[in-house]
Amino acid sequence: MRTTKGSARRRAKNRLFKKAKGFVGGRGRLLRTTKETLVRAGAYATRDRRVRKRDFRKLWILRINAAVRERGMRYSEFIHALLEANIAIDRKMMAEMAVHDAEGFDALVAEVKKALKAA
Questions:
Q1: CATH number for 31
Q2: Could you write out the DSSP letters of every residue in 30-46?
């Protein structure tokens, strides 16, 4: 008598179809197409976890640059002066300050300008 996977195969298929829920057309209904689509989706997900980090860093730099230019400096000068002043604050926090805490960011820029003149 031939053995079949039976319920194990059904469970495996259901796991795949559950992951493919919401996919359009055969991509969510046909086993072979679903498998191919899930492999591709996994590759995109892996790639985009790294791309997301790049994109956020770009966004933070843009926001800091805009805020710093309003206060009469350039981004590169500002970052250099931060290093000169031994102020350890990351770009994410500076971008948040620039958007939500203008007074705090003003104080940071003033401190940086003071360090730039002293050097």
A1: 1.10.1900.20
A2: -HHHHHHHHHHHHHHHH
